TrEMBL record:
It comes from the Bacteria. It comes from Streptomyces viridosporus (strain ATCC 14672 / DSM 40746 / JCM 4963 / KCTC 9882 / NRRL B-12104 / FH 1290) (Streptomyces ghanaensis). The lineage of its organism: Bacteria, Bacillati, Actinomycetota, Actinomycetes, Kitasatosporales. Residues 217-332 are annotated as: Disordered. Signal peptide: none annotated. SUPFAM superfamilies: Chelatase (SSF53800). This is Urease. Residues 217-234, 248-264, 278-288, 310-321 have a biased composition (Basic and acidic residues).
């Protein structure tokens, strides 16, 4: 572990940090966010100790990171000078990898029930995406999801697996919290997700990286932490002339960006950067044979008169006239 004190801050994935205490070493303090984090760091800084705070999310609690940054900003300038905020313990991509490793240790003839405490609708929805990836790249026929304190809960999740014909179900935690076994006759625990030595190794890496960034760049991690939850939430638009997109867990898209160099020119406007991933649909952003992107305004109406059912007072298509709004949107 790097010099100084380490404070692990837990959120809903760890029941406010309570589920972490048996996994952390004696040199690591474990707190919930907000005032408890502020008081702990203030006390450590009063003793002259440098402090590294690590948000112990597994990728499903971006608000935990932002909340930790806000709490640290409330410190005095002197205390902030010796405090850094590390990158989150894990990301959703890490969680997929850890779950796949755990699933590989479960016999293929058993069903997997991926469990985690219920969060907001967006992180709960993302858990279904994560479970789908575990199934896609694994060897288990049935991979279902259960939300501790939510719907479906673990008992209902086991019933669903049984209804699909599975004889035995393994509860695979996608959080620090592990659920109680609701039906011991038909299911068994499959956790914890990570053993204490693995947790210590990842934690040490996050702390070391945080101090290296601070020493090399003067970066205490607070600005980055404040932006962690920026893209988390409802879809919205940017008003007239803006572009509509969805802000969900993670960034605007899920793949590495590339420019003209990788697939040809995008016309006279110069380089055009975009992302190929989950949100890049060739039906909405097609590429021509030469690699150029097709125009978004190039839809051509069929020749001849409009069909008989076409009415002049019908609601126009979204792209037909910038001054007409689809029927499901209110005028601004």
């Amino acid at each position: 572990m790097s010099p100084g004190e380490v404070v692990a801050v837990g959120g809903h994935e760890s029941d406010g940090g309570r589920a972490l205490r048996g996994l952390l070493g004696p040199r690591v303090s474990c707190v919930s966010g907000g005032r408890e984090l502020f008081r702990r760091v203030s006390a450590l800084r009063a003793r002259g100790e440098p402090v590294c705070v690590v948000p112990m999310t597994l990728g499903r609690d971006p608000e935990l990171v932002a909340d930790a940054a806000r709490s640290l900003l409330a410190l005095s300038a002197e205390d902030r000078a010796g405090t850094v905020l590390a990158e989150p313990f894990g990301t959703a991509d890490h969680l997929v990898g850890w779950l796949r490793a755990a699933a590989s240790r479960v016999a293929a003839d058993k069903a997997l029930l991926v469990t985690a405490p219920s969060g907001d609708p967006f992180v709960d929805a993302d858990l279904f995406r994560i479970a789908r990836l575990v199934r896609q790249y694994g060897r288990h026929r049935t991979v279902e999801v259960a939300l501790i304190g939510g719907d479906p809960d673990p008992a209902e999740g086991v019933r669903r697996c049984r209804a699909l014909g599975e004889r035995r179900v393994v509860l695979l935690p996608a959080a620090w919290v592990t659920p109680r076994v609701p039906d011991p006759e038909h299911c068994e625990p499959g956790g914890p997700l990570l053993a204490a030595p693995a947790v210590a190794g990842v934690l040490d890496a996050r702390v070391r990286e945080a101090w290296e960034r601070h020493d090399r760049l003067g970066d205490d991690g607070l600005s980055r932490g404040l932006r962690a939850a920026h893209d988390h939430g409802h879809a919205h638009t940017h008003g007239p002339g803006g572009h509509a997109h969805t802000h969900g867990p993670g960034d605007h898209a899920h793949g590495p960006p590339h420019t003209d160099e990788s697939h040809g020119s995008h016309g006279p406007h110069g380089p055009h950067t975009h992302v190929h991933g989950t949100h890049h649909d060739p039906r909405t952003h097609p590429h021509g044979p030469d690699g150029a992107a097709a125009s978004h305004r190039g839809h051509r109406a069929p020749d001849g008169p409009p069909p008989p059912h076409h009415r002049a007072d019908a609601v126009a298509h979204r792209g037909a006239d910038p001054h007409l709004l689809p029927s499901h949107r209110s005028p601004r």
